[in-house]
Specification:
The protein is mostly helical and 247 residues long. It has one domain (12-246). 78% of the residues lie in helices and 0% in strands. It has helices at 3-9, 13-29, 32-53, 61-79, 84-89, 91-96, 102-121, 125-134, 139-165, 170-186, 196-205, 207-215, 221-243. Helix 7 packs antiparallel against helix 9 (139-165) and helix 9 packs parallel to helix 13. It is globular and about 55 Å long.
Length: 247
């Protein structure tokens, strides 16, 4: 292979940036981003206020326990259109006529949805400020909690993107994404029904096991590897799913 062919075979990372900016702008050019952020903050805010004024607990623990549950419904709503809409409208074929690789399309869309979730989390920092004002707060679990939330969101976005790649129907993409995320979330809740030799494996596959560890402020490399592995594997399957149209 000569130098020209090698250069041609290597994807241009700027293409991912173009897809990323296009998708992120589309969220804010429509009502999607605003509705998602407002609904997300309204749910989290309601339970946060209840935990402080009704239960009389000035802590972020309730928020860090609740957000992953809210993600189960918010993230599929964000990701369901990413590829399903493109496939239904036929614009996915238009994208591939440009000098774009499938993985660039997938990565651009993945990062756009992941950043949107991150932006939705930013206003929750006011809860941290409130708790810090009311009393002493251990910053370790707070840092671990936000890191865990972003990694959990990354896994859910990757899984939701995979669900969106296998269908042209956004509702089906939402349901499949929700079921896959729910399976990951509930996996370690089924250990009492499993034999001992299988429980440790299932526990490790479950996302809540790793999130709970990080949210306590214990940042273990094994948990980070788990999150990155699931994200990478899900995105790989998404690329393979897109390539099926060429077979």
């Amino acid at each position: 292979m000569n130098k020209k062919n090698i250069i041609k075979a290597v994807p241009d990372l700027s293409n991912t940036g173009i897809i990323f900016r296009k998708e992120l702008s589309s969220y804010f050019n429509s009502a999607v981003a605003y509705v998602v952020i407002v609904v997300f903050l309204a749910i989290i805010g309601w339970f946060y206020v209840n935990s402080i004024f009704l239960v009389n607990i000035a802590s972020l623990r309730m928020m860090f326990e609740l957000v992953p549950l809210v993600f189960l419904f918010v993230v599929p709503a964000i990701t369901m259109r990413l590829l399903a809409e493109e496939k239904k409208a036929g614009t996915i074929e238009l994208l591939t006529t440009k000098p774009l690789h499938d993985w660039e399309i997938v990565m651009g869309k993945f990062f756009s949805a992941w950043v949107l979730i991150g932006l939705a989390l930013v206003p929750t920092l006011i809860y941290y400020i409130t708790v810090a004002f009311l009393g002493d707060i251990d910053n370790g679990p707070v840092i671990g909690g936000y890191l865990g939330l972003m990694l959990t969101a990354g896994v859910y976005v990757a899984v939701g993107l995979l669900a969106s790649s296998i269908t042209e129907n956004q509702i089906i993409a939402f349901i499949v994404g929700l079921l896959l995320m729910l399976a990951l979330f509930l996996m370690d809740k089924t250990l009492i029904f499993l034999p001992d030799f299988a429980s440790s494996i299932v526990e490790y596959i479950g996302i809540d096991y790793h999130y709970s560890s990080i949210s306590r402020g214990v940042i273990d490399s094994r948990d980070i590897i788990y999150f990155l592995s699931v994200i990478g594997f899900s995105l790989y399957l998404t690329v393979v799913s897109l390539e099926r149209r060429k077979w």
